[in-house]
Amino acid sequence: MSAPTEGKREGSLQAPTRHPLDWKNPEFYNEESLFKELERVYDICHGCRRCVSLCQSFPTLFDLVDESPTLEVDGIKKEDYWKVVDHCYLCDLCFMTKCPYVPPHEWNLDFPHLMLRAKAVKYQKGDIKLRDRLLTSTDTVGKLAGIPIVVQTVNASNKTKVLRTALDKVAFLPFGLIIDKWRWGVFSGEISPDEYNRAWWELKLRYQGVAPPSPRGEKLFDPGAKYHVPGNTPYMRYFLADILQFQFHRALAGIAGAEGPLHRASIYESQAAGAKLDAMMRMGLRQPWPDALEALTGEREMDATAILDYFAPLARWLDERNAGRTCGW
Ligand code: SF4
Ligand code: SF4
Question: Whole-model pTM?
Answer without folding.
Answer: 0.52
